[in-house]
Amino acid sequence: MEYRHLGRSGVRVGELSLGSWVTFHNQVNLDAAVEMMSAAREAGVNFFDNAEIYAKGESEKLMGTALKKLGWRRSSYLISTKLFWGLNDGVNEKNTLNRKYLLEAIDGSLKRLELDHVDLIYCHRPDPNTPVEETVWAMHTIIESGKAIYWGTSEWPAADIVAAIEVAERHHLHKPVMEQPQYNMFHRERFEVEYERLFREYGYGSTTWSPLASGLLTGKYNDGVPEGSRGSLPQYSRLLEKLTDRVLLEKVNKLTEIADDLGATTAQLAIAWLLKNPNVSTVITGASRVEQVHQNMKAVDIVEKLTPDVMEAIEKVIA
Ligand SMILES: NC(=O)c1ccc[n+]([C@@H]2O[C@H](COP(=O)([O-])OP(=O)(O)OC[C@H]3O[C@@H](n4cnc5c(N)ncnc54)[C@H](OP(=O)(O)O)[C@@H]3O)[C@@H](O)[C@H]2O)c1
């Protein structure tokens, strides 16, 4: 596995990482979590992604317990959490990046993770109702307190990220160093166009999500919604429209043909394609079972097969 700098920071992340959205607590129990995290680590993963809101705090608890069982040296891996949505309904406790919420929420996350710090902390969405100065100062305070090491944004408009960087520079505060955006073959505009200046001018890092568009880019939805898949989970029915979109499924079929020619799976092709982009610091993969982790980690071996001709063939399908 290649290790890439997280933007202009000194820390390096494996080009593939593993996240826990949907899966931990809902589909993955403690034994499976331990098995999957071990498989990822054996493949070279050093970053595991989490968020306060995942399974309403239960995902952090599960990852924390798994880490205890695994007993890895703390300095050998990175853990994240993300704050914004909140776990409580109070007026200052949800859909916010206010200072009070952030400073209290990080303590809750650390307690659930049973850690004294996370390595990466994200503002999980932008909050137009809190001045960016307040959020930047709060993130700076969290980092100075030792409860997190680097901070970043998730799905923020590029202009808001630039504003946050400028506030931090003006006041000599810790700057955000990475964004966590959705990026996959079917979701490209923001990463490739809107964020282009962030990567070029600010050397912003990126930890990208949903590399397989929730499983669509594996080909598993080509003949309907498989039982037990993400698309079959009632609480994620909002994903179904895209997972069963005829036009997208036709494209997936064509991608499968390209993958077959390379001796790869469609999932591996989709992940390797992301790794060709130098603005990606790490691709956060997701998996509901260990076999998927094994398969997805092998995507790193496919990257060299993505010659300019192959990239052009892919582009013709997904453009
Ligand atoms: N910042 C944000 O707002 C945000 C949002 C979403 C996600 N994320 C992060 O990004 C991570 C990855 O996102 P994601 O889970 O949506 O990634 P994804 O790769 O698009 O989807 C992962 C799902 O696809 C299926 N899958 C994966 N590999 C497969 C394979 N080889 N064969 C067949 N099916 C396979 C599994 O679902 P089934 O087996 O259940 O079908 C798996 O849970 C999350 O865990 C989270 O850490 C962040």
Describe the oligomeric state of these chains in a short phrase: single chain
The number of helices is 12
Look up the CATH topology: TIM Barrel
- What percent strand? 5-15%
Structural class: alpha/beta
CATH architecture: Alpha-Beta Barrel
Mean pLDDT metric: 98
The arrangement of helices and strands along the chain is EEEHEHEHEHEHEHHEHHHEHH
Q: Low-confidence parts lasting 5 or more residues at pLDDT below 50?
A: none
- CATH superfamily, by name, is NADP-dependent oxidoreductase domain
Task: Describe the structure in brief.
The chain is α/β, with parallel strands linked by helices. It has helices at residues 30-42, 58-70, 99-113, 132-144, 158-171, 189-194, 196-202, 240-243, 246-262, 266-275, 290-297, 308-318; strands at 3-5, 12-14, 16-19, 47-49, 78-83, 118-123, 148-153, 178-179, 205-208, 282-285. It is built from 12 helices and 10 strands.
